[in-house]
Write a structure and sequence with these properties.
The complex is a heterodimer of chains A (about 325) and B (about 500). Chain A has a single domain, classed as ABC transporter involved in vitamin B12 uptake, BtuC. Chain A contains 13 helices and 4 strands. In chain A, strand 2 and strand 3 form a beta hairpin. In chain A, helix 3 packs antiparallel against helix 4 and helix 3 runs parallel beside helix 5. Chain B contains 19 helices and 21 strands. In chain B, strand 13 and strand 14 form a beta hairpin. Chain B is about 35% helix and about 25% strand. The chains are: A mainly alpha (about 325), B alpha/beta (about 500). At the A-B interface, helix 7, helix 8, helix 9 and helix 13 of A face helix 2 and strand 8 of B.
């Protein structure tokens, strides 16, 4: 049975299908499984980051540091690999750094009761600045593990393929879905977003949940950074500039309420896919500048925020009537 | 009963906030299998005592014993773990989660860390069915149910946390009669099962109906502990307010003087209605008249008020205020001299982090335009004047409003609107959650305003109060205006009959 709280996600999925069909009619060669899979291949890192962001936004917060953490991850990875560190050490290390960075911001937000916007903005500058402390240049990665992961194609039936990054992203997606809907941490995150005061009075572990949410986002950013490194095979302080906004856009288009307490990880997947399919259409069009992606995403964001507003005011009306 | 040992004992509790002595030397005992009412005026320290007991505030001095063992309650988790569960005045659940989750969150049935949703929903449905006589779809989000049901869900949650002590803080203030009955049935059942219940309310009837014992606080101090059967009502009230009751007794006399038939019409609604809110109704209010709106919770009282203020857009009929054309927005209504004091004083009225002074001058400042600021000196004068006139406590214009008790916050709100000198004042539940002394003060104030020519639309769930202050009463039932009565017609019996809908309309 379709419940009314699933409406936003239905709209998102329908929109994605609509855009994809429209593209298929307009461009030859658009309608193929590989084009669909390419959406995932090109946006694996965005998906991972946006999943972390979903938890933060559902909890009622925001994380602006994700793009910078990606850049920092690429920088640290590239330098250490250049110095001859093995990939098996570098990857866990950067993931650890990302999680600690996120947990630190979460702790500041919770214990000092500071707006997440400001704390993560500071985190964003800090991480971006640290990149340039390491180096102002691009550092190319030649590590055999990284290059082989980057080039490996996982074959699927029908002659299509995906990258290892996609597998990682899908794994994160599955784990996050489980985390959100079947664990106490996930439910506490929703409770926190619904009403922090109530969550406290209900005796829920608010501190642990809040710090955990930002830690998870930090971890996802670092993992997104690792996947991004596979994709770019370089470390650079200017990588992933503005990525936090892409991630937030994906989450919102995916139907998550910016006010917290409501949203689905699955919605975020489609939010990312919608961004991807718009990019694809613009590249198929050929003559349009890639900035058109931004314009369309901007319009979609407006549309979705208005939809959210309508949705929540209808809910209020229903409550008053009841 | 006396020879038994108390399950909970609070000794010499002290708690101080900046500028306010909230509790000084308060005692409290609670025995298993009793309902113990905690009484006091607003600002007497009831809420503070409860917050101390539930770990929201730390105590400055004194101690708490549970089952003869001293306990340190430092957080709501501590309280819960110790077996002290609370249902607060405002429903403190998460509206976005399902009913079942709200009952069990933090204690969900799990296997290997995985939440078992089916089991969770089944257990919640069973709990509500068996203990609250409530059968609803527990997988729906909480916000899709009315406040009364949310309240019962909150109690179900508290019950489920194998509570030894259940604290009910003003649980009945948003329930209608039938729902109160249902709640009392549950409370009686729990009492027989040996639970100790601490019950806070402002309704004296309810206190005597359900309580075994009463503890009275006044101004943060302990007045005494009494058996309910041995404490006459009048004595209870005078102990609460600490003065004799002439204030209350002179009230009914005031009414006769008011009620001017020939005054000019201030507001006139013709077939005004809004789909899903209120069916079309006619209503006119004359100068200096107090019109009461009576009806059960959810009968459309607030919706009517919002239509009259332009806060919700009517989809049919006309609304005229004074001699102008129709009114569509709150802005127009305010320009025409209407003031609306909302029932939701937390959400729509007061601004927590501003001072009394700033809250009072807010509406005046808005009506003057933001560029013609009122000088701080003038602001203070105004604030002082109202603090004195309305007896706001603490009498310090620079106190943050969030540190005030509910009744005093209400008075600040009233002051805000009175300052704009409205022609018509709409008061939606102005006395909800306010103690009897402050109630009488507000009622008296309303009557004296009408004598000075101000019209008032007075909305209240307490019939007695509506009858006392109103010159005319409009009765609502099921979102329809079913009757209007004035003068001698107005009696509790007739209004009740109209509310209940016996045969007519």
């Amino acid at each position: 049975m379709l419940k009314r709280q699933h409406m936003p996600i239905v709209v998102t999925v329908a929109l994605f299908i609509l855009i994809f069909i429209a593209g298929s009619f307009r461009y030859t060669g658009f309608f193929s499984a590989q084009v669909l899979l390419n959406l995932l291949i090109d946006n694996a890192f965005l998906l991972i980051v946006a999943i972390g962001m979903t938890f933060v936004i559902v909890s009622g917060g925001i994380d602006l540091s994700v793009g910078s953490v990606i850049a920092l991850t690429t920088m640290i990875s590239a330098t250490l690999l250049q110095d001859g560190w093995p990939a098996g050490v570098v990857i866990p290390l950067v993931l650890f750094i990302g999680a600690v960075f996120g947990a630190g911001m979460g702790a500041i937000i919770h214990y000092f009761k500071i707006q997440p916007f400001i704390v993560t903005l500071a985190g964003m500058f800090l991480a971006r600045g640290l990149c340039y402390v390491i180096s102002t240049n691009t550092i190319t990665i030649t590590d055999p593990f990284y290059t082989s992961v980057a080039q490996t194609k996982v074959s699927l039936p029908g002659g299509t393929f995906i990258s290892i990054s996609v597998l990682i992203a899908l794994l994160v997606f599955a784990a996050a879905f489980y985390l959100a809907h079947y664990t106490r941490f996930g439910r506490n995150t929703y409770a926190l977003g619904g009403s922090e005061q109530s969550a406290v009075l209900m005796g829920l572990p608010v501190a642990r949940t809040k710090v955990g949410v930002y830690m998870f986002s930090g971890f996802c950013s670092a993992l997104g950074g690792v996947v991004f490194t596979f994709y770019m095979l370089s470390g650079y302080g200017l990588h992933a500039i503005g990525m936090e906004l892409d991630a937030i856009a994906a989450v919102v288009i995916g139907g998550t309420l910016l006010t917290g307490g409501f949203g689905y990880v699955a919605g975020t997947l489609f939010g990312v896919l919608i961004q991807g399919v718009i990019q694809t259409i613009i590249s198929f069009e050929g003559t349009l500048s890639s900035w058109w992606t931004r314009i369309v995403i901007g319009l979609l964001l407006f549309l979705f925020i208005v939809l959210q507003k309508l949705f929540s005011s209808r809910q209020l009306l229903q409550k008053r009537r009841a | 009963m006396e020879e038994r040992l108390p399950i909970l004992q609070m000794k010499d509790i002290y708690k101080q906030f900046p500028g306010v002595k909230a509790l000084s030397g308060v005692q409290f005992r609670l025995f298993p299998g009793e309902v113990h009412a905690l009484m006091g005026e607003n600002g007497a320290g009831k809420s503070t005592l409860i917050k101390v007991l539930t770990g929201v505030y730390a105590i400055d001095r004194g101690y708490v014993e549970l089952e003869q063992k001293r306990i340190q309650i430092q957080s709501p988790q501590d309280a819960q773990a110790a077996g002290i569960s609370t249902v607060y005045q405002e429903v403190n659940l998460c509206p976005n989660l399902s009913v079942a989750e709200n009952i069990f969150i933090g204690r969900e049935p799990r296997r290997l860390g995985r939440i078992l949703w089916k089991e969770l929903n089944r257990a919640a449905a069973k709990l509500l069915e068996e203990r609250m006589n409530l059968s609803i779809d527990v997988s729906q989000p909480l916000h899709s149910y009315p406040i009364a049901i949310q309240q019962l869900v909150a109690i179900a949650r508290a019950l489920n946390i194998s509570a030894k002590v259940l604290i009910l803080d003003e649980p009945t203030s948003s329930l209608d009669r039938g729902e109160v009955r249902q709640l009392f049935d549950v409370m009686n059942k729990l009492k027989r099962e040996g639970l100790a219940i601490l019950f806070v309310t402002h309704f004296l009837d309810q206190v005597y109906e359900i309580s075994d014992r009463i503890t009275i606080l006044r101004g943060g101090e302990f007045v005494g502990e009494y058996a309910a059967s041995a404490l006459p009502r009048i004595e209870l009230v005078s102990k609460m307010i600490g003065k004799e009751l002439e204030l209350l007794e002179e009230l009914p006399k005031l009414q006769a003087e008011a009620g001017d038939e020939g005054g000019e019409i201030v507001l006139e609604a013709r077939s005004l209605g809004r789909k899903g809110a209120v069916e079309p109704f006619d209503l006119s209010i004359r100068k200096g008249e107090i019109v009461g709106l009576a009806g059960l919770l959810g009968s459309g009282r607030t919706e009517t008020a919002r239509l009259l203020f332009g806060a919700d857009r009517a989809d049919q009929g006309t609304l005229r205020i004074g001699d102008t054309g129709s009114v569509h927005t709150p802005r127009q209504a305010i320009d025409q001299g209407i003031a609306f004091c909302s029932e939701d004083r937390k959400g729509e009225g007061i601004i927590d982090d501003l001072t009394i002074r700033e809250n009072i001058v807010l509406a005046l400042q808005a009506s003057q335009g933001w560029f013609r600021t009122i000088s701080k000196k003038r602001q203070s004068e105004i604030a002082e004047q109202f603090i004195e006139a309305l007896n706001i406590n603490p009498p310090n214009p620079d106190q943050l409003i969030k540190n005030l008790s509910g009744g005093n916050q209400q008075k600040v709100l009233l002051a805000r609107w009175l300052l704009t000198d409205p022609k018509l004042l709409i008061l939606d539940e102005p006395t909800r959650g306010i103690d009897i002394g402050a109630k009488a003060e507000i009622q008296k104030l309303v009557m004296s305003l009408s004598e000075k020519g101000m019209s008032v639309l007075f909305i209240s769930s307490e019939l007695e109060e509506v009858l006392r202050v109103s010159d005319r009463i409009a009765v609502l039932r099921d979102r329809r205006k079913v009757k209007e009565m004035s003068g001698d017609e107005m009696s509790e019996q007739l209004v009740l009959k109209a509310i209940a809908g016996g045969g007519e309309g």
